[in-house]
Here is the input.
Amino acid sequence: MFDAFVDAAFALLVYVGLPALFVFLVLKGALIGKPLPTSIFLPGYVLAIGADRTETALIVFVSATGYVAGQLVVYSAARRSGRSGIESAPRVSVSEERLDQVEDLFDRYGGPAVFVTNFVPYLRGLIFVPAGIAKYPVLPLVFYAFTSTFIYHVAIVAIAVGAFRAVF
Here is the structure.
């Protein structure tokens, strides 16, 4: 069942293109679309459409922008409702232990923690909860988030597409 969902989502992505990619990544950044595997969707989409370097750069830019937009949804919810707003959100499953972990990281390192945690699966985006609660300024938050997300997505695409093209 899960595989069928992922297959259908990928087919929709290939059919609709960048707007679907943007929406998928907004959902993923907002912690709702966690079942959508970025590490498969991004390079898979690049390969499926036979993207050249310019198209690949646009794909990575759109994906990073969508992901950060989704993270800002989490930030806004946490800023408005605090931690309880995230914990009670439907379709968002985050353990109390994970939230404690990202709160400690954010309290200790602030904005740079946003940059670093965006490279860590299962922590990506959660750092926006304590950032929202602390009312961390949006512009530096977006800078840290977009920069790290863009680098992360470039790495995913470069490694996967490079490996695929080397083998095939």
In short: The radius of gyration is 16 Å. The chain has eight helices and no strands. The mean pLDDT is 88.
